[in-house]
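Re: that chain you flagged

S.,

Sorry for the slow reply, it's been a week of failed gels. I finally had a moment to sit down with the sequence you sent. For the record, here it is as I used it:
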Amino acid sequence: MGWSVAAVLVTLAACTIQEAPRSDTVVATRTGARSNAPAWSADTWQPPVVDSTPDDPFEASVYRGLAIMTHVRDSLPSYTGSNLNCTSCHLEEGRRGNAAPLVGAYVRYPKYNERAAAVIPIEDRVNYCLTRSLSGSKLPPDSREMQDIVAYLAFISRGVPAGESVRNEGLAKMPDLHGDSTRGRTLFTANCARCHGNNGDGMGAFPSLWGQHSFSIAASMARQERAASFIRNNMPFDRPGTLTDQQAFDIAAYIVSMPRPDLPLKELDWPNGGAPTDVPYDTKNHKAFQPPPRLIPRTNDPAAAIVGAPASVGRSR
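Prediction finished late last night. Pasting the structure tokens below so you have them in one place:
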């Protein structure tokens, strides 16, 4: 047999082996064939419940992650500058819809982030919350605490296919309204002060809404429309949904007009332009929308508050 003929026969044999159907395949091989995997439905999926008595090291990590997120001030005192916890905004352990739910978030990362103009891993997204919403410092991505948080996010996303969305994801988009801070002050006193205090300092489990121990100017909640959405759907805490859209905007306008912590290098956000209109600080091609009268300098290490976009190791050589 000549070498050319032998080569052809070997090639044909290899193709036959590669194209032969496998017994463990889950892909339908003909029209109408069904997979044994249950169909995904955002309407029926429910996140699993965290077991308070873990059976293995992963479950123990999940439980620690939940404990950190519900008690950041106690668990990571040197990494937060506020009196907020993760679950101050991600309500019901990150399970409540239209309250920036965390269920399903794990399967959508790595993800392109317009504010950073980069594809980021979920660890960076966690650090954005720590540095911006909790006015704190970034956690080392390979720390046990970070991996515990990620383990929790992965656990409550079980069953959601990669890239899929869940019901009432994020914060509901609000109508195109503008708040009045004068009306908002009156509404705040009537609806919010009994939990957050007349001066917005917070009381007990209820966090500060402005001042040194609140979220920073670069947090999503510092944007009027985002804050209005959270208020409209989730506040007052014991009477959610009782405020009108306009009342929510008015309260949000009052809250975001108050002094709050700064974020170093915030002007570098949205480096390609396109910042939302209500971002309260200057960025590329964007003028600050109703910025607060005063920003409070960070008392912790300013460099620790900066989460840079992932850098190429090839370019660093």
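What I noticed first: The first strand starts at residue 111 and ends at 113.

Talk soon,
D.
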